[in-house]
Amino acid sequence: MTPPQLSVVVPVHNEQANVAGLLAEIAAALRGKLDWEAVFVDDLSSDGTLAVLERLKADYPELRVLAHRSQCGQSTAVHNGVRAARAAWVATLDGDGQNDPADIPRLLAERDRVAPSVRLLAGWRVNRQDTGSRRWASRWANAIRARLLHDDTPDTGCGIKLFERQAFLELPYFDHMHRYLPALMQRAGWSTLSVPVNHRQRGSGVSKYTNFGRAVVGVRDLLGVSWLIARSRRTLVVER
């Protein structure tokens, strides 16, 4: 079987009211433009998310559904989705519907325009539709991260990204790694690019994160990623 040109990986947890509409938008954005698949990874939802996804397979032959047997979090869901993906390039979206699938073709067009060394295109929410407290917390977190990691990325928390599958799988894996993909890609020797994208209000359900929870985990992760970067050594290898 010929692999698709793009895999869209979507981690979900308790998003039963959002997954059908999100999948319909993905199909509207991509059908007729390229061969694609959607890999939804259910992180042990306690509502009807998994049942809705299984029913949607009858209408969407592009849909694949993975189910965690224990709840592991967003980074593990993304990592497992990318491992299962069949395309050489992967786009990711958050499962809450705040990312706009219509931005995926824009990311693909930017990928085709820039140098081959760019292996990650990260969405940049220039007009965030979150609460004031979340926007404030995000600005502080991005400022601290940029000062420590020097990753030249204004918004690493945006769920919509496009990257080469193999480059992603070669990165060190850890919980919450999805928030540090630009820095990790640059550590591996690749270039990254931030692309302005649309951002929408959550249509249904509740956020899985709190500002305090992000801060507690973020301090530890920042120190860890900073250490990884400091200990990195790269050189050009020539076969003789």
TrEMBL record:
Coiled-coil regions listed: none
UniProt keyword list: Cell membrane, Glycosyltransferase, Lipopolysaccharide biosynthesis, Membrane, Transferase, Transmembrane, Transmembrane helix
Record has Membrane as a keyword: yes
Glycosyltransferase 2-like domain location: 7-168
Pfam families per UniProt: Glycos_transf_2
GO biological process entries: lipopolysaccharide biosynthetic process
UniProt-listed InterPro entries: Glyco_trans_2-like, Glycosyltransferase_2, Nucleotide-diphossugar_trans
Keyword Transmembrane helix tagged: yes
PANTHER family attached to this UniProt entry: UNDECAPRENYL-PHOSPHATE 4-DEOXY-4-FORMAMIDO-L-ARABINOSE TRANSFERASE, UNDECAPRENYL-PHOSPHATE 4-DEOXY-4-FORMAMIDO-L-ARABINOSE TRANSFERASE-RELATED
Name of the featured protein: Dolichol-phosphate mannosyltransferase
Organism: Stenotrophomonas ginsengisoli
